[in-house]
Amino acid sequence: MAHDLRDDLEFVSGDGDDYYFGFDDDDAVHGFHSSGRGHPAAASHRNKQMDDTSALDYKEGKDMQGIPWERLNYTKDQYREMRLRQYKNYENLTMSRDGLKKECKQVERKDTFYDFHLNTRLVKSTIVHFQLRNLLWATSKHDVYLMQNYSVMHWSSLLQRGKEVLNVAGQLTPSQNVRGATPLSRVQISTMALKGNLMVAGGFQGELICKYVDQPGMVFCTNLTGNNNSITNAVDIYQAPNGATRVMAANNDCIVRTFDTERFNLISHFAFPWSVNNTSVNPDGKLLAVLGDSSDCLIADSQSGKEIARLKGHLDYSFSSAWHPDGRVLATGNQDRTCRLWDVRNTSRAVAVLEARIGAVRGLRYSPDGRFLAAAEPADFVHVYDASAGYAAAQEIDLFGEIAGVTFSSGDDGEALFVSIADRTYGSLLEFHRRRRYDYMDCYI
């Protein structure tokens, strides 16, 4: 990973007396002032516009994010056109993109698989590294976890209430006296993952934190590298072939480390030729996807680290991946503005290439039933593809602002979809509910 964001997006907020409209981009902030800037009513208007947006509000014409377009100098359509024209996608490699568009699948993006349910500003995601966006997880449709400043917050969509479950601003001391555990302080969380009650977070200076969300304190924490410049880029929680739960961490030092979850012993240590930005293990725990500062992606044996296949086709560095629940299809997201789908039974070429609108594909998640694939760009767009329709149909969720994460609820078929927006004024958590078609009820109508 060649670049990091040092200007601390953790402290984004709408502070100040003036009402400022701005969306944070990868490299710059494109913003404009409302016609009410400097007016005495601006501050009170700002407080009013911070209200949540419900499904009913949305049906009655309120903007999904609560943006008061009628008070601004641009219409929503005008601003969207401007964003599409001006947004600059970050690139590490300058390989020719000629011919890439011809590879991309033709997708109809007019479906609605998930209906808008709620936008709340009671919790707001924050981002400390512009290339890493795995900062949102839902362990159920009622339990959502996200990074906010120096806290991991739990949002209950049932109670409409947020609660801090982990504070990393001060001293962190592991509760278990295990080999390798070390106290930490003031951690900037760069990535996180949750499965069941176990939460794992990676830090900006190589930290690893493990915590059970239903227990106080940290069960384990350490610095993986001893090198303050070796950010923890990705963490993963998975089931090994023997059924044991494992924790995996990938770092800028080109090492992927695996820990058990009984005593948090280091059980494997795999070195790769480039910084590893993302890893994911397939459902049976045998295959490991490794992505990083290379245009190639690797599939390796999860227990030995031995390379099984090299996936060629991307044109820049990769930062996201997701396995279909059937274990046969791997999705990879890249800064070349594409998601590639690979059938692991034949990895000679991608079976499909899905194109983003304005930026890299920085977040990928499959719904638990495998029906849908959610692909998040750095800002403004989340695409929900119908995997059962060969990815030829999609829902495009059109937003404004930096996307900190996207996740389906687990423990069900993916009944809820959550999207977190990191923005100094319009930062929020959006909730969508899966649309169900009960055709069997037609006979009663």
TrEMBL record:
PANTHER family: WD REPEAT PROTEIN (AFU_ORTHOLOGUE AFUA_8G05640) (PTHR43991:SF12), WD REPEAT PROTEIN (AFU_ORTHOLOGUE AFUA_8G05640)-RELATED (PTHR43991). Keywords: Repeat, WD repeat. Transmembrane segments: none annotated. InterPro entries: WD40/YVTN_repeat-like_dom_sf, WD40_repeat_CS, WD40_repeat_dom_sf, WD40_rpt. The keyword Repeat applies. This is Uncharacterized protein. WD repeats lie at residues 311-352.
